[in-house]
Amino acid sequence: MKKLILFFLSALFLVSCAKTKKQEAIKGEPVKENISKKPNIIVIYLDDLGYGDLSAYGATEIKTPHIDALADGGLRFTNGYASSATCTPSRYALLTGVYPWKNKNAKILPGTAPLIISTEQQTLPKMLKAEGYDTAIVGKWHLGLGSGAVNWNEKVTPGPNEVGFDESYILAATQDRVPTVYIKNGHVVNLDPNDPIEIDYKNNFEGEPTGKDNPELLTMKWHHGHNSSIVNGIPRIGYMKGGEAAKWSDIDMADHFLEKAQAYVKSHKEKPFFLYYAMQQPHVPRTPHPRFAGKSGMGPRGDVILEADWCIGEFIKTLEAEGILDDTLIVFSSDNGPVLNDGYYDDSDTKIGKHTPAGVLKGGKYSLFEAGTRVPFITYWKGHIQPGVSNALVCQMDVLASLAKLIGVEEKTTDSKELLDVLLGKSDNGREDLIIEATSRTALRSGDWLYIPAYKGPAVNTQVNIELGNSDVALLYNLKDDLSQTTNLYASNPEKAKEMHEKFVKLRGDNFSKTQQLELK
Fold it and tell me: Side by side, which strands form the sheet with 167-171?
């Protein structure tokens, strides 16, 4: 009889355990404690997406259900940072794990700039490739190509393939810069050898129309800086001649990159892969496909955010259909904060309504205030990351060292911090200090505090209507109490100001700006 009772009690215990595991799985709680094999790794990187541009981050005037699904099923960081308030430096830091201000060439680049990542330098794709990963980039590059004068009619090298990517399908710089062509593994796609490409960022080619001289040819009016060669009715930065068959269709770009990303995962699902899916939205020129034009009610900027969200939803569906979503770690973020009018009249500022792209944050793209570098940051890995919210301080630069730990590599970089447990939601101990950057100016985030040295220059960039963080006196904010940076505590808290300044100089060096005005000695 005792044996029979023990049997029933054991059976009840096993049923109870199974029920608990099932409930955990339904709740989305991780039930996999051990990582038995290397996961696929995907970085989804948007361009100029602000902290307040997603409904997962509090937006009420726009809905982004597919990105929200990543946030709801993964870890949403409230203190996630790009390294810089502009694109090229942030991309450099993401791929190299190095502060961009340590490379004088890591600044917004023209389409003709040489590659700014050394082919001898350690990179995220190079590290993963050495550990058996297939590696690829689809989308925006903007880290330079070649070693000087590029001949676009031959193989363009060095580029992504020379710094660790097995496969690359990119646009060279940005959608608003020439050359307006796709480049696959160093070769311009669909190039007609009888119609060679010529590029010049200083002088136009004889007889070629421009946005400045031929406004009658435009379908999008330029506001500032974008008045050179016209492609698809849109004036660009820089001059281009030839390559007509190779020129991209702007309204099809999102679909085009999505198809390339989907095709890559379908053909590489049998072994671990790393995909850097660098989307172009919502950077200018905002050219939503007709399926999305007018859908947001906020003008083209809102429309392309909806388009990007849909693309991400379709991409995730592909991972599910191929049976690899559970084996894939996804990191989602943006290269810098938001901007509305960034060179074109596209109604993005006039139709914004109640939407606040920066959320409660101050500033935006180009700014040392929080909205310049604090961006959406999400990690998702079904079955391994507990859904939730993290307030830990993390930076995209830390992805390299953290993934090295994940795959069992002892990787040492100068600036990337190993925060794997933080990215997986197992720890709240993020960074203590982070140097942030905006157009050659730097500042210090340390704990709950932000310190911006005194910088000469205009307080506001009037072209884009964004506060830059320049001031005659240093700026000091307690972000825990004053996230919107309304009160400068520099004068009222001299001890903290001195402490922050000394730490900043120790980390950054005393030559941090040619326009520096040191307030403290």
Answer: 187-188, 182-184, 167-171, 134-140, 273-278, 40-46, 328-334, 377-380, 75-81, 388-395
Beta bridge pairs of residue 224: none
390 — phi, psi (to 5°)?
-120, 135
Pairing of strands 167-171, 388-395: unpaired
pTM > 0.90? yes
Please name the residues in contact with 356: beta carbons below 8 A apart, sequence gap of 6 or more: 52, 59
Give the mean pLDDT of 450-471. Answer: 97
First CA to last CA distance, the chain: 85
Which string of DSSP letters, residue by residue, matches 200-252?
ESSSPPTT--BTTT-GGG-SSEE-SS--SBEETTEE-BSEEES-GGGBPPGGG
Contact of 171 with 248, CB cutoff 8 Å:
yes
Is residue 335's pLDDT more than 60? Answer: yes
| 206-212 long-range contacts, CB within 8 A, separation 24+ | 208/239, 208/240, 208/241, 210/235, 210/239, 211/235, 211/236
Query: Tokens at residue 469, please?
Result: 């963080």
Q: State how far the Cα of 373 lies from the Cα of 382, in Å rounded to an integer.
A: 27
What is the β-pairing status of strands 273-278 and 40-46? parallel
